[in-house]
Design a protein that fits this description.
The complex is a heterodimer of chains A (267) and B (277). Chain A has 267 residues and is an alpha/beta fold. Chain A has helices at 42-49, 71-76, 94-103, 109-122, 138-151, 168-183, 226-230, 237-247, 258-265, and strands at 3-13, 17-27, 31-35, 58-61, 64-65, 78-81, 156-160, 187-191, 203-208, 211-217. In chain A, helix 6 links the parallel strand 7 and strand 8 (187-191). The radius of gyration of chain A is 20 Å and the shape is globular. Classes of the chains: A alpha/beta (267), B alpha/beta (277).
Chain lengths: 267, 277
């Protein structure tokens, strides 16, 4: 497997170190949930990976060092849905903004039409294409931002609290779509405060005190549940319930699925 | 303060955002407003706050009448009684320090200096921020802290009705627990009417007394939270998945014919499971 992200000895921060001596290697094709308390440096890390903050440290994206010269090349490999996405809406309607963003990557008019049609259909938001930006709700802006981040076929997708503004049925559909893309090689870093989202991905990183406290596959993530409480995080409901029922000897393993747990409890 | 919503319709360029909404929101209750992305939730409560005007219908909040004919002086009264904490705190905040930010609203309503300083400190304390924040630049705070400042600047004015639009965005577990505490306190101690618009269904479940499901500009179902969350299928058809604990309880009821009683907490749920084994 190829490494999509390589970081060596990264330190960054003004007074307090937001990121301290961080080394991290991520293989492509992982769907990583990135969690940690406020001010732990999650968004800063996302901004560093996207080249928005120059740290002069050893950071490679898809085998290429991030530096001033190849910044546009780096950004071509990354789709980034920022927590505050107002800045990407520079023109008055959705279609114009989408085209504006795609032209940066050098696509021709025909390719642009096909790409827009493809992603907007997959995300089921064709109806938003000719809307005025002022008429979009918070959630709709998030959906359009996600579409824009996916349009240029990035190898790495970074989501910073993207799903929280989107309704849960749609969220589930989007996760299903993203998982399919991950199987084809897309790498995702999903920054969230919602523990339930851990179960949508393949891996979990817990970030706190400017350090990585845990980086493991979702299957192994709950072996030491103490790491969650130590870092002020909650467990997903079904995992929390399983662990407590195990304590009462009512089941003997951790379940990720309500149906399976219920069928085990009332056999 | 009770809110009565009568025949509210709101249209943007031939698009019906709200379609003849009628309901009553009781004084001193916490109300969750849920619904799919773009269903009209925010618009409905922007009308209540006088930010946008309805095409048809009106709202009453105490003695206030809010309709398409709202005058400038009426809008001031509305803002004095109805506080709105924005979905994007960046849109609400604009001052150079937290102190100026919170005092802006108070200055507008002509509070005296001593009274003002006390209100600013009290409001900060309520949202769990110390006086050390007074001189800080709101735009250099974390998103969770920015939300707290936005909430503090609304609380300082002491409105009867408080609308929170997606208040949990950017909040970690600790700050979310803190927000739950703040909201419960302002309800209990000051009998405020609180409206929370959110996609964070676990949060809505945790804190609300009543829930309103809105889709395509109409209220699909409303009632106490358990009455609404029992309707898992109806909610799903309207874009919303129920909280995980409710999904579990509904699944047990539908597949094992065991009624666990709707619980807010995993530990209570476990007691129910032990009893029914």
């Amino acid at each position: 497997m190829k490494n999509i992200i390589e970081i060596k000895d990264l330190s960054f921060g003004y007074k307090d170190k937001l990121i301290d001596n961080l080394s991290l290697v991520i293989e492509e094709g992982q769907f990583i949930t990135l969690m940690g308390p406020s001010n732990s440096g999650k968004t800063t890390l996302a901004n560093i990976l996207y080249g928005n903050i120059d740290t002069k440290s050893f950071i490679k994206i898809n085998g290429e060092f991030i530096n001033k010269k190849n910044l546009s090349n780096i950004k071509k490999n990354i789709g980034y849905v920022m927590q505050n996405n107002e800045s990407i809406f520079v023109l008055d309607n959705v279609r114009k903004n989408v085209i504006f963003n795609l032209k940066k990557y050098g696509y021709n008019d025909e390719e642009i039409v096909t790409k827009i049609d493809d992603i907007f259909t997959k995300l089921e938001i064709i109806n938003l294409l000719d809307r005025n930006i002022k008429e979009l709700s918070g959630g709709e802006k998030e959906l359009v931002s996600l579409a824009i981040a996916l349009l240029h076929d990035p190898k790495l997708l970074i989501l910073d609290e993207t799903m929280i503004r989107i309704d849960s049925v749609r969220r589930e559909k989007i996760f299903n779509y993203l998982r399919k893309e991950v199987k084809k090689g897309l790498t995702i870093i999903n920054i969230t405060n919602n523990s339930e989202e851990i179960l949508e991905g393949t891996h979990l990183i817990i970030f706190n005190h400017s350090k990585i406290m845990l980086y493991t596959s979702v299957g192994k993530a709950f072996k030491e549940p103490k790491v969650f409480s130590d870092n002020d995080l909650e467990l997903p409901f079904i995992v929390d319930l399983s662990i407590k029922l195990k304590y009462y000897n009512m089941i003997d393993k951790t379940y990720f699925d309500i149906k399976k747990l219920v069928n085990e409890l009332w056999k | 303060m009770e809110i009565k919503i009568s025949n509210i319709t709101y249209t943007i360029s031939d698009n019906k955002i709200l379609d003849n909404i009628n309901t009553t929101i009781k004084e001193g209750t916490i109300n969750g407003v849920i619904g799919p992305t773009g269903s009209g939730k925010t618009s409905l409560f922007q009308i209540l706050n006088g930010m946008i005007k309805p095409n048809e219908g009106f709202m009453n909040a105490g003695d206030l009448l809010i309709d398409d004919d709202l005058s400038e002086s009426d809008i001031d009264k509305v803002h004095f009684n109805i506080g709105y904490v924005y979905q994007y705190p960046e849109e609400q905040l604009f001052c150079k320090t937290v102190e100026k930010e919170i005092s802006y609203g108070l200055d507008f309503f002509n509070y005296k200096k001593e009274n003002k300083d006390k209100r600013i400190k009290d409001a900060l304390k309520m949202v769990g921020l110390g006086e050390s924040y007074l001189k800080k630049d709101p735009f250099k705070l974390s998103s969770g802290e920015m939300c707290s400042v936005a909430l503090a600047s609304v609380l300082a004015i002491n409105p009867e009705i408080i609308i929170l639009d997606e208040p949990t965005i950017g909040l970690d577990v600790k700050s979310k627990k803190n927000l739950v505490k703040i909201i419960r306190t302002i309800k209990r101690r000051y009998k405020k009417t609180i409206i929370i618009i959110s996609q964070d269904i676990e949060f809505i479940h945790q804190i609300c007394d009543y829930v309103y499901l809105i889709n395509k500009g109409k209220i699909i179902i409303e009632g106490d939270k358990y009455t609404v969350f029992k309707e898992q299928k109806l909610l799903k058809e309207n874009g919303i998945l129920v909280p995980k604990i409710i999904e579990f309880e509904n699944f047990v009821l539908n597949n094992k014919n065991i009624k666990l009683g709707y619980r807010d907490d995993v530990n209570d749920l476990i007691k129910d499971i032990l009893r029914n084994k």
